[in-house]
Write a structure and sequence with these properties.
With about 290 residues, the chain is of the alpha+beta class. It contains 8 helices and 16 strands. The protein binds zinc ion.
């Protein structure tokens, strides 16, 4: 945990997964990406599912906001092996408890989007169906992301599982909205359209500590700071490229902290400039 302006910010390591290195780096040739992200025998690279918990220490209403929920524990063994999924036995709830956070004290869950490695932990399987993993939380999501996940295309349907989100719509815990918004004081959501439809990124305003961007799948790892290193998974890669150009320029100018959801080793960093490119500056832990 680290103080960031008015917030306490905690990084939660909710497990690891392995995804195809080629799909993670799009048009970038393997000899380049494998230098920083070595592939295993099945061409998978090691990725974290690093969530973020944010608490505003200045308000009387105590909110504890979780950003994304990891893979969850609904995958059958075969797919767990396919995606090299490892995580605590008790999933995201246990990951939080290990970090000293009572899972039932989570008041809000921000889902950046509904891909299984972000929303898998949102619901939990019970004998009688699926229930919200966080019974006391409101789940916040872009309406268009929800609509898309209900009817994805053949190209991206493998990234969604209805079991991760359908139950949320049924039990009144879902807050769907449209476009960018300041959800809570100092907690803003930016909408991004390159990776999938209506992904939302979290931008914290930490007053004197500047701003922190939870950049989710716009820049899943530090290697993706390079503009052309865009995922093959992305629906609109040129949109991602322009979004990155804009975010990195603003981030560099305003000295933002960048928080990585999937980087295997780096939680967060400041940005620096080298030979005209934006690169990792000071490395930070949360
Ligand atoms: Zn994604």
């Amino acid at each position: 945990m680290r103080r960031f302006g008015r917030f306490n910010v905690s990084a939660i390591e909710a497990g690891r997964l392995g995804l195809d290195g080629g799909a993670m780096f799009g048009v970038v040739p393997k000899p380049l990406w494998s230098r920083t992200n070595p592939a295993d025998e099945a061409n998978r690279i090691d990725l974290a599912t690093r969530l973020m918990v944010v608490e505003d220490t200045t308000t009387t209403i105590k909110r504890r906001v979780l950003v994304d929920t990891g893979v969850g524990n609904k995958f059958p063994e075969k797919q767990k092996a396919q995606f090299k999924i490892t995580q605590p036995e008790g999933g995201v709830r246990q990951a939080l408890a290990t970090a000293g956070i009572d899972p039932d004290s989570i008041t809000d869950v921000i889902l950046t989007h509904l891909h299984f490695d972000h929303a898998g932990g949102a619901t939990t399987a019970r004998d009688d169906g699926y229930v919200a993993t966080f019974p006391n939380a409101t789940y916040h999501l872009q309406r268009r992301a929800w609509k898309w996940a209900e009817h994805p295309t053949e190209r991206d349907s493998g990234s969604f599982r209805t079991a991760d989100f359908q139950a949320l719509g049924a039990n009144g815990q879902l807050h769907l909205f449209d476009g960018p918004i300041e959800l809570f004081p100092g907690v803003s959501l930016i909408v991004s359209e390159g990776h999938t439809v209506a992904q939302q990124l979290v931008l914290l305003d930490g007053d004197d500590d500047g701003k922190l961007l939870y950049c989710a799948d716009v820049m899943p790892t530090r290697a993706h700071l390079r503009l052309a290193w865009v995922m093959g998974y992305d629906l609109y890669p040129l949109t991602t490229l322009e979004e990155k150009r804009m975010l990195l320029a603003q981030g560099l100018e305003e000295d933002w902290t960048i928080f990585f959801e999937h980087d295997p080793t780096l939680t967060a960093c400041k940005l620096a400039e080298k030979d005209g490119n934006v690169v990792v500056g000071e490395e930070l832990k949360f």
